[in-house]
Write a sequence for this structure.
């Protein structure tokens, strides 16, 4: 039950006190034993003469005193009456208007001119609405960002509280979701209508910049349905705080071009920049900061509303994780002038190659590390596939399987766990492969409902002459052959291969095809399902499948003598494809350390396995402590409070531990596009202005109030009756004398 209604009803019960004077009067009329007394005869004779006048005076005083108590109880109950409807009921303090304030806090609202951002303007208008409201109006407050959050979810009647909450609203560096906001508005209105019946009229005031990213789906079916429900409950008022013309430059992307980083080797990065008004801002300086130190800068010329890609280079001398910031000069929207990247520089890239016949790995090992030197950037280790269960796969950056006959269920679980934690897995098929074993390893399980790779192995192809078809060279793995038709890819001799199919709805994709139309290389990224807080990351490693063998030992035994499937491992196209497969396999490690707002990051405790308490330092230098969980002979920790843009660091709370860079969080770059939505794509009810009618009386909410606050009149009447009662008591008493 509404506590305000309960208290009002309780106060109204005090109106029963109005009968007290009557009860006292009746009580005093009890009969007593009468005794005649000589002097009383003269007094009674005089009283009988004035009896009717005295009775009228006493009755009038009784009525006035009852009225004082009755109207005082009404004033305490705070009742309101709406014209033509009788007493409306009981409610909390305030008038009959409920205002839902909705403030857009997506980061395009940080755009500012003359020292005032769009959010500042929206907050100023919201404060004005609160200050101009009638005494007792109720307010709820909703922010419109990545989520629709009810800052004040039930009507608040103290303007000071509402103003304080408005002042605390800040930019959410994300994209606002309109449907979530409309759903939140409808819910707030229905709760208020149920629990605060005295708020007879409702209005929704949305303050936004009408950015196309947020509002382009305003005419969707779901938005239209929600809007219809809202307009049945309230008047819609939308206030536009945007500008028709803007000038904004933004870094919309930054990625590591060099597939893996090792000390003293060139590290290349690509930075994507846009500007929506190059005539006003023709160019800017782009800086590259590494661990807080300026290492490079370039002048970037802009083209209106086009992405300009810039390559920035550096050399890392020390292994470990490093924080990189790409920075443009500040403009009118500062949020998107920075882009953060975290990279991991490894002393060596460790790669494990497994096969049932270790000597057959010679071509694969040579393609991965042509130099074969001890201090090479890539360290390749070869082992028999039977040792898979005894190997710590997490110590390797990528794992290659070459013509392994079968994958047992426990081996499949080990491989799945490795890929789940960001490891790269590359599989070469061959004549020994048992399709049913691989299909069982790939398919979803009860604990892991996502397939390791969305592909189905069929059988080896019939003998024939096949060629490789790159189609439009769109896959990154074919980058070395783009524009190099003489690179050997198109002439690779193939007589047999393993046929596979991609099931309908599979997330895997073909990167290279055979002339027959069958996939030659398939790739996909494993997405583990989150079951509980111990699950590591939403983003797993990459898995690649070659439908060709990595050695010349695979033969077609239907022939006499048997003949090789292919000479692909000896062909010029083999080393580039293997190198690109390695780059693709380890690319997920870069993705794992570079997240967007709200995504989960998992860290690993190195060294002291007894240090289970981890301190994560946020970009604003605040810290948060979390527990590490032992798993796979390591300590893992997961962090999901990634609501700030910038660099996150961690430190194990053990003796001698030092802070280290862990990961970077960046906003969704779509909000950097300040293009305004075309108003013809916005439903009339959401366009700037006031729309709809007051549900109580059919008149706009902004019209003069039609309700009468009885408590005000009741108090005035009580005061008047008190003076009147005193006057009557004096007058009748003087007359009696």
């Amino acid at each position: 039950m509404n506590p305000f209604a309960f208290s009002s009803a309780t106060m109204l019960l005090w109106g029963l006190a109005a009968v007290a004077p009557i009860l006292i009067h009746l009580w005093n009329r009890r009969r007593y034993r009468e005794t005649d007394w000589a002097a009383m005869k003269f007094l009674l004779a005089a009283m009988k003469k004035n009896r009717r006048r005295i009775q009228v005076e006493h009755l009038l005083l009784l009525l006035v005193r009852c009225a004082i108590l009755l109207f005082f109880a009404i004033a305490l109950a705070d009742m309101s009456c709406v014209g033509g409807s009788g007493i409306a009921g009981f409610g909390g303090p305030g008038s009959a208007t409920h205002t839902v304030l909705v403030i857009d806090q997506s980061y395009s609202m940080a755009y500012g001119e003359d020292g005032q951002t769009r959010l500042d303007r929206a907050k100023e208008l919201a404060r004005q609405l609160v200050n101009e409201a009638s005494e007792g109006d109720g307010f709820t407050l909703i922010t419109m960002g990545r989520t629709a959050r009810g800052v004040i979810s039930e009507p608040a009647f103290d303007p000071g509280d509402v103003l304080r909450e408005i002042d605390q609203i800040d930019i959410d560096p994300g994209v606002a979701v309109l449907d979530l906001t409309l759903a939140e508005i409808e819910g707030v209105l229905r709760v208020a209508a149920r629990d605060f019946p005295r708020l007879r009229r409702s209005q929704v005031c949305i303050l936004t910049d009408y950015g196309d990213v947020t509002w382009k789906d305003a005419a969707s079916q779901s938005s239209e349905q929600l809007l219809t429900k809202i307009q049945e409950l309230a008047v819609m008022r939308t206030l536009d705080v945007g500008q028709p013309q803007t000038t904004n430059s933004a870094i919309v992307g930054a990625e590591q071009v060099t597939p893996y980083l090792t000390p003293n080797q060139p590290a290349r990065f690509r930075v994507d920049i846009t500007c929506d008004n190059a005539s006003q801002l023709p160019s800017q300086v782009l800086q590259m900061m590494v661990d807080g130190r300026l290492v490079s800068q370039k002048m970037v010329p802009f083209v209106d509303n086009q992405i300009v890609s810039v390559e920035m280079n550096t050399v890392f001398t020390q292994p470990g994780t490093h924080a990189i910031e790409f920075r443009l000069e500040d403009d009118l929207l500062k949020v998107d002038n920075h882009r953060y990247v975290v990279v991991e520089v490894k002393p060596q890239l460790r790669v494990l190659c497994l096969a049932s016949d270790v000597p057959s790995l010679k071509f694969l090992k040579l393609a991965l590390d042509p130099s074969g030197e001890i201090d090479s950037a890539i360290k390749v280790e070869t082992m028999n596939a039977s040792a898979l269960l005894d190997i710590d796969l997490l110590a390797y950056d990528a794992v290659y399987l070459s013509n392994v006959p079968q994958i047992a269920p426990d081996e499949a679980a080990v491989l799945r766990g490795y890929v789940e934690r960001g490891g790269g897995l590359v599989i070469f098929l061959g004549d020994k492969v048992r399709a049913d074993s691989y299909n069982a390893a790939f398919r979803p399980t009860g604990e892991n409902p996502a397939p390791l790779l969305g592909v189905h192995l069929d059988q080896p192809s019939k003998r024939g002459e096949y060629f490789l078809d790159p189609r439009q060279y769109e896959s990154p793995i074919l980058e070395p052959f783009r524009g190099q038709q003489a690179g050997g890819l198109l002439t690779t001799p193939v007589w047999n291969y393993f046929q596979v199919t991609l099931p309908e709805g599979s997330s895997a994709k073909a990167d290279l095809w055979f002339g027959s139309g069958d996939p030659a290389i398939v790739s996909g990224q494993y997405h583990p399902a989150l079951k509980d807080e111990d699950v590591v990351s939403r983003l797993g490693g990459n898995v690649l499948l070659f439908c060709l063998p990595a050695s010349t030992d695979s033969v077609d035994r239907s022939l006499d003598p048997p003949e090789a499937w292919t000479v692909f491992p000896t062909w010029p196209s083999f080393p580039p494809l293997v190198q690109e497969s390695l780059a693709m396999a380890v690319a997920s490690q870069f993705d794992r350390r570079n997240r967007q707002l709200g995504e989960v990051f998992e860290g690993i405790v190195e060294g002291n396995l007894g240090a289970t308490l981890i301190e994560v330092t946020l970009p604003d230098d605040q810290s948060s402590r979390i527990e590490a969980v032992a798993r796979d002979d390591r300590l893992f920790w997961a962090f999901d409070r990634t609501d700030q843009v910038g660099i996150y660091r961690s430190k194990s709370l053990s003796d001698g531990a030092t802070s280290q860079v862990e990961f970077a969080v960046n906003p969704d770059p779509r909000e950097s596009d300040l293009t305004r939505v075309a108003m013809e794509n916005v439903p009339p009810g959401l366009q700037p202005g006031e729309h709809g009618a007051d549900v109580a009386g059919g008149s706009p909410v902004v019209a003069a109030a039609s309700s009468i606050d009885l408590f005000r009149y009741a108090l005035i009447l009580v005061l008047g009756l008190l003076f009147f009662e005193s006057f009557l008591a004096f007058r009748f008493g003087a007359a009696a004398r």
Observations:
- Residues 51-77 form the longest helix (27 residues).
- The longest strand covers residues 266-275.
- DSSP finds 14 helices and 38 strands in the chain.
